[in-house]
Description:
Elements: E1 14-27, E2 30-36, E3 41-47, H1 53-60, E4 67-76, E5 84-95, H2 109-114, H3 116-119, H4 123-145, E6 149-150, E7 156-157, E8 169-172, E9 175-179, H5 184-194, E10 196-204, E11 217-226, H6 230-251, H7 253-258, E12 276-278, H8 279-286, H9 297-327, H10 332-367, H11 377-385, E13 391-397, E14 414-422, E15 427-434, H12 439-448, H13 457-464, E16 470-476, H14 477-485
Parallel strand pairs: 3-5, 6-10, 12-13
Antiparallel strand pairs: 1-2, 1-4, 2-3, 4-5, 7-9, 8-9, 10-11, 11-16, 13-14, 14-15, 15-16
Helix pairs in contact: 4-6, 4-14, 9-10, 10-11
The protein binds 4-amino-1,4-dioxobutan-2-aminium adenosine-5'-monophosphate and magnesium ion.
Amino acid sequence: MIQIKDFKDFDGKTVETQGWVTNRRSSKGLEFLILRDGSGFAQCIVNKDDVSEDIFNTASKLTQESSVKIKGNVVKDEKQTGGYELHVTELELIGTSVDYPISNKEHGIEFLMDHRHLWLRSRRQWAILKIRNRLIFAVHNFFQKEGFVQTDSPIFTPNAAEGSTTLFASKYYDDDAYLAQTGQLYGEAMAMAMGKIYTFGPTFRAEKSKTRRHLSEFWMIEPEMAFYDNEMNMDLIESFIKYIVSDVMNNCKTELEMLERDTTVFKNITSEAFPRLTYDEAVDIIKGKKKINGNTSIEVLEADLADIKNQIDDCKEEIAEKEKIIAAGVKKGKRNFLQNRIDTLKNDIHKLEIKAGNIPKWIESAANFEYGNDFGGSDETVITRMFDVPVMVYNWPHQIKAFYMKRDAASPELAKGVDVLAPEGYGEIVGGGERETDLNLLSGKIEEHKLPMKEFEWYLDLRKYGSVPHAGFGLGLERTVAWICGTQHIRETIPFPRYYGRLRP
Length: 505
Ligand code: 4AD
Ligand code: MG
């Protein structure tokens, strides 16, 4: 059996392949099948003159998602995705498919989510999962080449590490247990054993809100490095993100095209340094007090708004023109063509109006931002709007960061944390920082956060026996996939998403 992705090696030859029919259309003694096999998509043409009557009959009755075995000749055709099509000589039905619920027409998101087990077969979902796969591969490649050891942290844990409000409670025989929110604390122990480690595992947070960036179950990559301070941490984060993004850009061109992702937004990712802003500087940007390239954030957003309004006017003008032509009377073909264009424009207007409606809200919430607060989604959007590569924000007020963050000796109100914010409104993809090594400060924080001291005795041991400066970070896999793929919502970036309100399928 030859996979579709390998057709290129069989130009002009006969191959046998198998897969599912995603689409069929007929035209004068020809059946055009779109076959998918997981490795790719290919058009297969069944010509009445080339096959037996039985085979042509079978082909002309094939329904969406029937599975088939096909023999045919590979023919180059640049117009096709993949560049090759198959001229069928034999065809055998493997499994029928009756009334497949997902058609080419638009479906509501809840319907698609209820049918996630089938929706995964669609082109768009296929492309996203391929990109997710490549990203995972790139993550391992990066850390392995940098000499990191991959270690695993437990999922059943006796305590919170990232704040007790988002814990999923469980039982561990007779003990109370919680699903891990992070592997970090165990990662620190492993870094003291192995030097530089990374964990890559599922993490769980009871996020009782439906946002486009929150899952209840997500995968996190958490490197932890002995003898690293936060500067070195930021250098590593930057080279890591540059590496994984450019790896996906180089190896997933077809998938990114299928998603219609505008990849020019990544063009500077490797050449340009990621801006590093202190929390204070970031707040000044939000509040319009600091200029970047000669403009404040408020000025840039107001210009964006004016630009969007112009675009809406242009769309409306074009619609009016097209409607006038239709009203004057045109042939059916031409009318359909014009009507399609009008529908597209109306869709564009809808999207632009949503954007136009958001900008004043961002400006307002930015103006009202209070120093000392954590950034919300719109604050992150405002900061990242000023740059075209991810932005690092460091030196945070210690009160809004986790108990383990290292306090700055020179400014004790600050903690040496770092967040990385992705452009285009994707926001925080990385959270990390240097870890507190001062035993007294650390146990003080554990008390302040009302965490059970006895569960942290082993963690405090790491500071008693050869404590060293160390740092690390966590990259959210799904948020990174969403950013690279340009998906509206994080729920499409994991095969079976778990978020508030969804446990099935
Ligand atoms: O910023 P967070 O909470 O940091 C930690 O968990 C640290 N222990 C990491 C470390 O230093 N080892 O989470 C890290 C990242 C976020 O930046 C985000 O990308 C992702 O994990 N993340 C989520 N992704 C999807 N859904 C959620 N509910 C997420 N919460 C965090
Ligand atoms: Mg965070």
